[in-house]
Amino acid sequence: MPKVNSSIRVAIVAGVLAAAAVGPAQAADLWGPDHGGSIKDAPPPYVFSWTGFYIGAQAGLLTGDTQGKPRFGCFAGDALCFAAEQFFSTDYDMTGGLYGGQIGYNFQWPGGAVVGIEGSFAGSTANGDGPSGVGLLVSERDVDWLATLTGRAGYAFGRSLVYVKGGVAWADINTDVRVGGIHILSGGETHLGWTVGVGYEHAITDRVTARLEYAHIDFDSEDHTLKLGGFPLLRSEVEAEFDSLTLGINYKF
After folding, report:
1. 39-50 in b/e burial notation, b at 16+ Cβ within 10 A?
2. pTM, 2 dp
């Protein structure tokens, strides 16, 4: 067999190496100057994230129960006075609309866990009334506004998010007392309480999300100073609790 001299062997090896380099060179050319970039310039695959600030609006239904008891300044052992407080106490339902807005921030961890914080403020048309002791004496109560500051924690399935929430709530609750349709006493107070809830949110676009949320709100008792013509006449201990169901829409920055 004829021997292949060293120069021929060098040429063969160089040709093989050049052929092996053709593949990567052509692949790199896919994102080269003729195609708008290089492989290292290729954009990563897009993944939606819930991280970021958002602002939005909400509307829904607020329904609940309220109790009130007049404070006549009873002394210990004065059974008749305590009986009178109980006789004129009230307990009735309140129902109405809820409309307002919210602002918040979410942070999504790798893997889908989402945490956030949100503040909301809403006006309300919720009200109700009931008899107070005798048929002609009627107590009426309404919620003027409702505000919350809550933390949120949930899990994201791509563009869908399920979450729970909990935090502090405030509400402006007012009381009116009327006799035969004539208002004689009125007063109110800002109540402090707590709220918990659950919700489902879905990203319609990269910026716009929609959600459905349920929350329970429980307010501590507060004394309403009822006035007659601006003159303080009677204290009434009032408490209330509510359930809300709202639809919301957010814009994500």
Report:
1. eeeeeeeeeeeb
2. 0.80
